[in-house]
Every structure is written in C-alpha cells, then in structure tokens.
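We examine the record.

___
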Amino acid sequence: MGRIVLERVQAGNLTEVVAVGREWLSGRKTSRFSRLEIDLPVGLGCEIPLFPKVSWRSRGGGLTVNAWGAALQLDLKDWVGESTVFEELGVFPGSDLANSLRWFIWGRFDSLFETPAAGADTDGKSIDEANRWHDFGTRRLLLPAVELRRENGREFLGLNSVLEGVPKLQKAWEGVSLPVATGWQEGGEGPSVSREDWARQMSQVQSAMSERSSLKKVVLARWSRFGVPEFPPVEFLRTVGELQPNSYLFRIEPVPGSAFFGASPEQLFHRQERKILSEALAGTRPRGHSVAGDQSLGQELLRSKKDLEEQRLVLNQIVEKLGPLVGDLEVDTEPRIRRLREVQHLCSTVGGELVPRLHDGHLLAALHPTPAVAGYPGTKAMKVISEVEEFDRGLYAGPFGCCSARETEVAVAIRSALWQDGVLDVFAGAGILPESSADSEWDETEAKMQLMRQLITGAHNEV
C-alpha cells in the first residue's frame, strides 16, 4: 500500500477549484487513500453530479457540510462492532489526516427491521411501503467523496479519494458547477392518518398499557402526505434552517428523486474528545401569540404532571444507559423550557466523560431509541409500535450524525420528511401515557408538523 496523503491548497474562484482538483486527481497513482483540501472564499458554493448527497448543520450552525458521493460507504451489522473509517482506509487514528475527516452515520428507527422479501410478513405494512426505504440502508456509515465544509470560520472543499474510485470521481469532477437556486413546486395535502384512526390506535396503545402494568409510555407516530412533483430538498431545508437556527439540519439523497431530511431539535449525544453531553427532550406545548401567552404556556408545561412524567421517563433511561459508559455523570436537577419556532418542550441535560476504550458506537447502541421516540421500557414499547402503527418509520426518529475523531454530534431524526416519486410524507409523534387524550395528542402532532406544512402548501408568507 502506498503512502497516505493529505494536501492543502487555496483557490479564489470555481475555475481555479476545478483546475486544482483535476490536476490532483490526475496525479493519483499509488496511495490507496488521499485527501485534498481547497480553501475557498466564504460563500463560494458548488454542485457536483454525484450520489448520495448529504447535508448537515450542527445546532447553532458552527459546522455546516454539504457532501456528494462516497469515498467509503459501509452497511453496518451493529453500532458497536463496526469497522472504523480509519481501519478501512489504513489511516493512523491520531494523524492530521484522521483529525481532518468528517463522516456521516445514520440508521433506521428500528434497525432490527430488514427490507422484506416478496411475500414476507410485514406486520400489516405493505412491501411497497417498506421498500421505500431500501436505498437508505439499515445502519450506514459514509465518508463522502467531496464535501463543502464551513467550520470555525474556515470554508473549504475537501476531496476524499480511494484509489479504486478515482475514475468515477474524475468523471464527476468535470461536472462541477455553481449551484442554481430553485424553488419547490407548492403542493396540496393528500391522504393522511385520520383523527378517527389516530384515536383507534391510541386506544390500542392504552389497552396494551392497562394489560402490561410495566409499560409506562409509548410514542405513537403518524404522517401527512403531500403531492409535490418538483422538490429540491437542499433549498427547502435552507429555508427551514433560517426559521429554526437552533435545530440540527440533515439530508440524505441516496439516489435521484429520493430524499430524507429534517430540522431536529433533539440531540442524541454530543462528544468533544471524551466529554459527553446528552439531553432528555419531551413534553410539548405550542408557542403563544404574545410574550405573556408564551410564558403562560411554558409555565403550564412545567406544572403538567403528565408532561413531567413523560420527560422524567426519558431522563431516567438516558441516565441508566449512560451510567456504565460515562464517568462523573452530571444531571440537571430540574427540567427547563426549550423553545422552538412553533412549539416548546421540557429539557434536561446529562453529561460526563466517556470511559476509556469506548467509542461513538457504544453510545449509539446504548442511547437509541430513547423513550422520547419509542417509549418506556423500550423493548415493550417497540413491540407495541410494530403492532399498532400502520406505516414503516424507516429513518424517521432514527439517529443521524456527523462524526470525527475529535467531535461527534448525533441528532434524533424527528421533525423530518421523506420525498419520493413526487410524494412527500411529513412525520410527527407524541408520547402516549395511560391518562393521555386523543385530541390533545393529535393537536401536539399538528403543532410539530405546522412549519413544514405551511412551507409545502405555500402558506409560508404567514409563518
């Protein structure tokens, strides 16, 4: 194997970028893996004809990545035992090259589910619906071939080149162009879960709780469907991001015409070196129409026995799961209000230091799914969800993150949607307790969908 290469250069415009990249790729003869970073003027974007396409923005916007293609893509058997990026590429973990790499990781809500074969039992869910998620994988790790990254005030284009993938990357590189801003074709709302079906499903969930006293919470989800023939996910997400600056933004387009994307308020975990932070987010109220009304709704949330219990179950499981993995665990004594544009939630943080020899995979395996998206206890709640929900969640409510040797952030992929074949499904869920009301939980899911619905249907001028 040849030497591992990391090079850094500068370019002042897109013409220089293309020329530098072309020359670099033409010289790729011996090293199995190389990386080129081209420093750019701030705001110089580009578009590259490569799939998959991935986007990520950290909470607050400190890190923004748009990426194209796959230098390395792994479908993982499980989170803990996967081969690392460094092992696959032959990169020394402590090197400058290792520290410069950013890769993406995502997985299904229920990663035990596999795309069914023809004639298989799918628990009442159609084969066609299950296959909608096929191209996204079950549990996947991706090192992009090309990335446009903004981080710590620096903006650059990165090329990750594995020797056997050079011809494909060279061909795609000739198609580098300036991005063309396009709007989406506004769509009308189509089929959805009805209020009657929602009430029926909630009744099934609450019956399961009454039969199994140890089952304290189940998160029930639904979708609303829109016909949107023409839809650029990256443009839509940029608009959502401007309205939700403190949410995680994520997008994956595995093939043309298929995209999963969202703007999530929920962090699964954030690792900086060995320092770990997680949070328990649950309980919901809408935002008020005035400052006084907003504060009143927040205080109502802080006094709600039902919402406090729902959030406590989430917090307790996170503490229980992190306990063996994290030393010097610190937990908020009382929840606080996390306010978003349309809704507000109860939130508590949990932090500590990751035990030596453990890694991000151990955190993923331990924390996902949290009671905020599944229920409590998790195994029993997941069984009820599989029995009651009449659609395949796919990546909805699964983990989606951007990883590196020094820092990893993983969001819970809620406030999200799937666009495929001109149809866009927007997802939302609510935590069901024995005392929950079907009407109030329906209203909660409506509030969570409100921003996307307004943008899709052309009511965004009113937002």
User: Anything to note?
Assistant: The first helix runs from residue 14 to 26. The first strand starts at residue 5 and ends at 10. The chain has twelve helices and 23 strands.
